[in-house]
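The data layer described in this paper is built around a simple, fixed record for each protein. We quote a single record here, exactly as it is kept in our systems:
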Amino acid sequence: MKTTERSTARRPRAGEVRLEGQPVSSGVAIGHAAIAHDPDPPPIDTTRRDCDPAHERARLHEAITRSTAQLRRLHDRLALLPEDGQVEIGSLLEVYRRMLGPSRLRRGIEARLGHGMLAEAAVQLETEALAAFMLSPPGRPAPEGEDAVAARRRAGEFREIGRRLVRNLSGTPYRSFSAIPDGAILVAEQLRPADAALIDPSRIAAVVTEEGGSTGHTAILLRALGIPAVLATHGLLARIGRRTRLVVDGTTGQVILRPSTRTAAAARVAVAAYARERQALGRLRRLPARLSSGEVLTLQANLEIPAELPMIAQSGAAGIGLLRSEFLFMNAGTLPDEARQESLYRPLIEAMSGDPVTIRVVDWGSEKNSDALAQAGIGAGSDVNPALGVRGIRLLLRHRALLETQFAAILRAATAGPVRVLLPMVSSPAELHAAREVYARVGRRLRRKGVDIPDPLPPLGIMIETPAAALMADVLAQEAEFLAIGTNDLTMYTLAADRAATDVAGLYDPLHPAVLRLVRLAADAGLRQRRPVSLCGEMASDPLAVPLMVGLGVRSFSMHASAVPHVKRAVRAAAMDDCRRMACRALEAADGPEVSAMLMAYAATLRHAGDG
């Protein structure tokens, strides 16, 4: 995000400077800056080809041994962190540990050493090559939207483990936060994910960096630790010195340098108000998601990577409404087999302690990156428009062995707790029928082998992501056991607008009446066929939109874990009659902005009623 320095006319006094960064972890803090510099390793000569391969391999193996020991020590420190931070960081450290083992990364580095490269150069070149492959695979479109976020995260994993190896090869020391005074605000050019394991949230008031982004591992880790944080605050280090006083707002992304007396007083009020807000939302965790008129809804959480599990437990979500299984394939060197997949599903199901888990089979297309799938010839096409190509259930039915393996792993793991299985991008009854035949056949095969699986098989449902699926929902609901409306793709296909495409992003509006009418069709079909209907797009995370969705007939929502308490608060303030009236008006509206204005007016009415 672009850094802005506000005009003197808007500053309470000379000397106060306001910068804007990317908010990644909510909260407000005031304190003095403690600048943590990260020593740079020496320059690497990537042109040398006269090194002794045996000597460089020995150096590499020593660096791998040292890196593994460091990761183990970092893992041992996790007991000092909050429980959710322990699981979040622990999962990431396990990813790093696997990369140091028999992985594609290690094989690639050792192959480069055979050409006489310096070990540091081989590590740097190979990690950058793998990161580039994740971000822009040759012969395939670059990933967009959520896929681009995941690709950047995977690329960052390769680069991070590469940096660790280079540091150990060159003997470059790591920075330490032990000398930072209690209550200080940690300021750095960049914060690495593994650095988060060194942060004591009881001592450091907030984190601000010049670089970084809101979707990377560092941001996820800081949210898990509960520390107010703003990343990508460009120009920060040039404007501050040691012990410069700062105000950090992790909700808005604002960082104030040398705050005036008035600004500092307002910040202290905001710190207290945020503490009260967290206490209030914390109390909601144990309360039901019940409308003020008495109707009970179901609020669940989405899970993209296992590291998000502790945030789900903390949110008070009633289960996992959408487990995206793509994480299994993102960093895998080979396709995960039945046993490997079961070993990942089972602990997630067990961790929910009886709350349901909905697992979506892999939703893949040519715009996504996976070395394992590409090597197997799956999803490696070069569709001109991946969104309209072979993806979702279309791809799985072309590669049925992949679908059968995933079905079998889910069925094996389903003995650990209640599970539902979700099919992506179904647009016709024929696709659902074909997938159900595969599902039943896998179940029969496992029973013949004496494998313990649920009887009957877990419910098999479909995503409603295309206008065709919404229009045919009454027919699809006769065979699908539940429906899940994915408003992100449904909006894109309905309005012919990709929010990742700059030229048409302004046309992408999930509140457009055309989208709302399709949601209503799907919800009505579920009601008539007595099938559960959930909503799991970004709209489910919007406290303003959820009452409208309730009025349209949706009773179950799955969202990012951090949104659960905010949505629950909105739900408990709303009444069913108001929700239905809003739905009737929204369906007759001319456009999305009209619907948005109506929702904001309703929210304001509720706030005024609460103040009264």
User: Anything to note?
Assistant: Residues 1-14 have pLDDT under 50 and may be disordered.
